[in-house]
Amino acid sequence: MTGAAFPAAPQFRAVPGQTGVVVHTRKLPIAFGIGARVRVDGFEVPHITWGANFVPVPPGTHMLTVETTQWGMGYGSNHASVQVFPGHTTEVHYSAPAQIYMKGALGAERQATPGVALSYVALAFCVLLVVAWIALAI
Question: Following DSSP, what letter does each residue of 31-87 receive, concatenated?
Answer without folding.
Answer: --S-EEEEEETTEEESS--SEEEEEE--SEEEEEEEEEEETTEEEEEEEEEEEE-TT
